[in-house]
From TrEMBL, chains A, B, C, D:
It comes from Tuber borchii (White truffle). Its cofactor is heme b; FMN. Residues 1-76 form the Cytochrome b5 heme-binding domain. Signal peptide: none annotated. Its EC number is 1.1.2.3. Its main location: mitochondrion. This is L-lactate dehydrogenase (cytochrome). CDD domains: FCB2_FMN (cd02922). One of its GO terms (cellular component) is mitochondrial intermembrane space.
Length: 489, 489, 489, 489
């Protein structure tokens, strides 16, 4: 048993100890390789870091990075003045906890925006900033949220809509309705049940979850929370600089019963999420050197998570990926009709690519990147054959069942939600995510009834009026040859 | 005479009594079939429910649903502590009543918006929420209110406009000007004179009323309030799951002297009116079960009224309707040129359809459904022959005489107002509705004079500039065959 | 000498006396023919009405309407408790007078908006409402104010702009720059110098004034305030129901040296100016009868001024006008290319029509009428030959020298300002109007220099980019024959 | 040694002395030729004017304008009550100085807007007004700031973006990234290091500075602050009425090692910057004469700086310029495709013109002049060959790295920033400017990575979607001959 006062002495980069869940670790040698930066650890050196560590690292993360000798043993509880509670909503400050009593009953959350309002009350400023933030001036995020509203519906009359059927399949898995949960990272910032809670909610509501590569729980824990072994789940992949790490992950993914691999391509470099950076900055201490002033400091949680990801993938890397997984491959982050066409080439399909997710990473990659509905319309305009060769999914900006139906009318097979699932989790855990999904399903059903359609297959271009957006969709400039498709596989 | 204390003991679902207008009713067996839900009654079990019951049920509604033995007899007045007053503006809370003294003199209400402002002061929160609410994010309601403003007028000079004539006919009935009152439900939430008050006002101002299928007075009472037997009136029909109920209503409609039947088609399922739901929720108690949390609770007055309506009408049902009425049939709720064309088919006309109302149900059906003026322009663009075969009416978003004139320029025969009539009624009863109509008529006359036209027949496309909207009107996507018209009668 | 107490007894419609400038008048017989309504007088019956009467009636107005016997003679000053001061800024309430001390020095008024802000402080609520108000929802007024801003300038470089010349001629009169003051009524509500003050300011700055038919001074007084006999001035004409009144006016106009007659055609009926009506209502007493509640009451100063104007002019009436004046005729209020074409017909030109003013009456006629710049562009698009046959002027919404230059690039010969002249007058009298004109001239000069032009003749379509408006300009709907031009002269 | 009390007596236009840096000057004869106006000096007559004089005049300015006999000698320090400190942030009021302590640490300035917010806190009202102000209603400034946001990016996937290279050349000088600092005047209003501080920052960050013709330091001082002799710098030229002054300047420019001359053409006359004028007015005393009221008073610092500039340059003057410099010539302020085409004529190129800067002078010339990105698109549309013959630069409205990248996609070679550099300087001196540049460079790198390009040469029209702006770009009106190009060289 180690005396906490002894731990407190090791609070510099020369000797840095931390306590996590009552175990003392010597992280001195690990400091420089910490993906989240040296400072993040040093600011907790010599102290109990459980509260900070816990919600953003899957269990065992630290152990995997240390030698056995660096795990120093249990702290003597009698020497600690304050004890960190076991996993719970620890990231909430006391003020926030109080407001938690004021959050509305779950049944009074009537739409997805209600959940965002509640989440802002419940979450710590850091978690809120991480979830809510997007790149630069939030222009793409704003576009995501409003683009669907520019499309008008065309309801038909005298249709028998007693029974409407929202069921479909996504990548061969049957689902209750065409919505899936996107790979949003760090779910335990929202609620201790984290990604596992989302898994259970998805199972109960019959939808599919894509598990983040940066989940705050191990994939084993998340998959164990499924309602049944048949519950479909996708595994997100950020390819690491050290390919062996990614290959190891793919092995676990295969073994755990995931049903597809989602290769994420929309952030070859992290976007600039200033709200995230500001919170981070306000927590840390002032910069010491002038050069730090000029260069800036900590770039926020979003950039820290990116550490280690390779920025140099090309189409050729699909061959490597195929070698290391037997699962269907889905490409996430396409934003142009050119890339959609390239993904629909025979040689790409033969490598096992079965679908693409049109996504601007929730407005967190390039600001002023197009909203997904623009990309859908661009493919519809310039490369409609893509819809015959690949399942096309979209994510970003879904707030209403009408949004989902409009995406389907344009050719999408299903639609992903990200922040909304996290916001549902924030206030209410598993039940919150279920209610988010229930609201969307009911809104989809209502929209289908009011349009006069009874099955998703019926939905088509004749059910929407896209004139307000038509003139904004990319048109190849005159003189640009069609020679865009030149990247070899 | 029954002791009120005895009534108070029957306050559960096993034995549920209520007092209405000093009569005690045993509604235990009726509970489960109440269209408005069990809870709405249970929250008043054992009590005097007159205040809640009265403004939303036509007299005799309850008696029709009960056996004679369930009407238990008069309560002993001496045993009641508080007595509900006879029909009056009972839904107003005391605070509201006070503010009522502050409402402006009628002659200072200068336009329709003024009446909305006053109504918000006068009405109970529940009534205001029911009237004001629309679907989802109110986008369609917003479009309704602003679309007419995008159209510019083209005034001509050197025209003799000493005498302008606003008279016309609607479905063969002569009217003073081309405005009618839409079938808005629950008018007694606004004022005790309810739909009867609107009938009297319409008679005095020479316009036509369409009586709601969900009126808070019996059609007999409403028709009796007409100024003369020749005053035209339309009967709205929501076809019920139990067709015999609708057939019985049609018989009464024929007998009472209605001049047309308006078959409502724009809400095969109720829209999601969240303001309405929120008020309802705030009144009721908290949900007991977790599943109720996930599924949500009470869906508001708007959805309650929908209970019993069939969602499975098709064009074939027009034959059934024709069998049960001799009156002209008007189809309400068309929102596409395709359906307008289908309504103009010879076989439909032969079944007695004489007109169509382009309507998105005041923004209360599908959100992002097009505003009526878009539909008018779409028919003008894709199916102009419809205007020769059917009278085309529009409702939704009329705030000004200029709006009415613009609709007429585009080919509408007349224009309906809904909320404005209720708002006029709210603050001022019959006189308020009359002033609403007078304002519209005077604004129409002014607009005609300033345009340089003396009769409605003169109005045409040359009097408006629709360029701001032209590019937003639906254009059939390339590759969509014209094979839309496939529904057989 | 009449005792004021005696006057006070004649305060009903049976016997109604008023004191104006210390003279007692018996207006009992005149009551019913007062263009401003009975009530306006009755509310002052038995009292000194000078303060109300003075700023809106040219001197002698009342004398002209009464028999000699109805002019009863001077009041005994010793019997009056309060004496109305001689003409001054009497319409200002004391509170307003105080704030007058706070108005900024004239040289700190840097643009036309500054004058509007100051005017709102200085003017009585009634005067402000009358000047500021426009029809219905002020949509056309808003369009007027913003349409010019949608047009971009196209500055050229390497032009010698040392000397720029803003001089031109308007209807053969040389002017210092292409701006004139529109016929705005009731200038004495702004300042006791009234329209005479405007005349002096125009003379000093070398621009032209069009004198309102409803001026608050006699045309003789206004013309006498000109800086020289050669100072050009136009006379506005509203043709009266009683043509002899108009013929009499035309005779005075000829005799006084006016240089043209401006026949106003844009308000065959008064628009609905609600701000104006609201002020009026708030001053008067409550309505007595229910019908008054339904019909509304006083319609404001704007409508009162309209009383007596004929609503039935046609092109034929130009012959009558020609018979009664030798002056050039300018038609004011054209709003379509069709009417511009009709005005440019040979038979119209032969009657002495030399120019047209494109105008929507400052947004006070039909709301959603097009802003003048749209009309300019419509004529440019559909009937460009009009610019060769007539001088085309515009008014409405001019706030900047750039606005003036843009109108000229589109083909206008000159541009009118209305409210701005009154607002300049409000705070500062003659000097204020001069500064308004100076600001505009300097802004025009700066714009010319920055565009790289040295004379007005150089300005053309190549100096502006109108793309933002191009798609909003009226396009004749397909199927509409060109047969619009059918009105015979 | 002169007694300060003696100085105080010379405080009129008959005898006017001022103290600057403890030296007494007799400026009586100079008064009338002061470019900033008589009043600016008279308001300081008899006093110590150091604080007012210093930040807007390069050292020695006054000495150059006076005879030796007018430099009267040092003031006796013991006779002065308050002594002006030596050069420092003297233009800050005490209140401002305090707030200076509250400005955020440099590393928390995350984007260019942050610097503007801080600058408003730090700067004196006069300096803020001078920097921030633009013409008239700031419409062009607003366009500048938002036009880039209307263009969407088109990110490509599967591109190796490990190494991105932002290096390029501008006018043959190698730079670290394609941004330069525009010739913004009066930098010492922001910080005592003034333009010299900007020079050092540009050197450290590897970018180019264009030195203002109206710098508050001598060009010798600015050039001496460069990091190395090879650091490129351009010299701005406003041609003076007195050409000899400009010729003298050109000689110094050649001698000092400037690498190009930037001939500024966008303000042949000063625009109307009202914020600047208002501050100036509020400082000065009230106007004495009525005519001053009508004509307005002091026109602000922006106009004062313009004094002496010639308004009559033509293409012919390029020959004069060529005669007096051997440096490459860059034309600043082109705003039309016509002028771009004229600049690309062989005879112009032969005179040494190598580049053009598309600029509306930061919104300070003609209001409603087009934003630079419109001009880029106009040239791309009507005269694309210009990009082959000249380097095309743009300035105005750059707030983000995405803005820079979009300009480059459209064909720009580099992009200038003006206010941002001054705002960086305001709060933080040299380091602030460096951080502004660092932020831009990092944002450019991130944008390149997210677009999937590794070098600037790759950027092209296929990386942006300009549809939202396409319809706003100038289109030659039908009937306008192509005969625009008629100015002879």
């Amino acid at each position: 048993m180690i005396d906490a006062k002894e731990v407190a002495r090791h609070n510099t980069s020369s000797s840095c100890w931390v306590i996590i869940h009552n175990i003392v670790y010597d992280v001195t040698d690990f400091l420089s390789s910490h993906p989240g930066g040296v400072k993040a650890i040093l600011s907790l050196a010599g102290q109990d870091a459980t509260e900070e560590y816990d919600p953003i690292h899957p269990p065992g993360t630290l152990e995997e990075s240390l030698e056995e000798s660096q795990i120093l043993g249990p702290v003597d509880p009698s020497t600690i003045t304050t004890i960190t509670p076991m996993p719970s909503l620890t990231s909430l400050s006391p003020e926030k906890d109080k407001s938690k009593n004021d959050i509305p009953p779950l049944e009074e959350q009537l739409n997805l925006d209600d959940f965002a309002i509640t989440a802002e009350k419940v979450l710590s400023p850091k978690a809120w900033a991480y979830y809510f933030s997007a790149s630069d001036d939030l222009l793409t995020k704003q576009h995501n949220n409003t683009a669907y509203q520019q499309i008008l519906l065309r309801p038909r009359i005298f249709k028998d809509v007693r029974d409407v059927d929202t069921r479909t399949t996504i990548c061969s898995s049957p689902v209750a309705f065409p919505v899936f949960v996107c790979p949003a990272a760090m779910a335990r910032l929202a609620h201790p049940s984290g990604e596992a809670g989302i898994a259970e909610a998805c199972g109960r509501e019959g939808v599919l979850q894509c598990v983040s590569n940066n989940a705050s729980l191990k994939p084993e824990q998340i998959m164990a929370s499924r309602v049944s072994d048949k519950q479909p789940a996708w595994a997100q992949l950020y390819v690491q600089e050290d390919r062996r790490k990614s290959e190891a992950l793919l092995k676990r993914v295969d073994a755990l019963g995931f049903t597809a691999v989602v290769l994420t391509l929309d952030v070859p470099a992290p976007g600039k999420r200033e709200a995230d950076e500001r919170v981070k900055n306000s927590v840390n201490t002032a910069s010491a050197t002038p050069s730090e002033g000029i260069q800036g400091k900590d770039k926020g949680l979003g950039r820290a998570l990116f550490a280690g990801t390779t920025p140099s993938l090309t189409w050729e890397d699909l061959k490597w990926l195929r070698k290391h997984t037997k699962l269907p491959i889905i490409l996430k982050g396409l934003q142009t009709h050119e890339d959609a066409s390239m993904a629909a080439r025979r040689e790409v399909l033969e490598l096992g690519v079965t679908g693409i997710i049109l996504s601007n990473h929730g407005g967190r990659a390039a600001d002023t990147a197009p909203p997904p509905v623009y990309i859908l319309m661009e493919i519809r305009k310039h490369a409609p054959e893509v819809f015959d060769k690949l399942e096309v999914y979209v994510d970003g900006g879904i707030r209403r069942g009408t949004d989902v139906v409009k995406a389907l009318c344009l050719g999408a097979k299903a639609v992903g939600i990200g922040r909304s699932a996290l916001f549902g989790l924030s206030g209410y855990g598993v039940d919150g995510v279920r209610r988010v999904l229930t609201i969307l399903r009911e809104e989809i059903e209502t929209t289908m009834r009011l349009l006069g359609v009874y099955s998703l297959e019926e939905l088509g271009l004749e059910h929407i009026n896209t004139r307000a957006l038509d003139q904004l969709i990319y048109q190849e400039p005159q003189g640009l040859s069609g020679g865009i498709i030149k990247a070899k596989l």
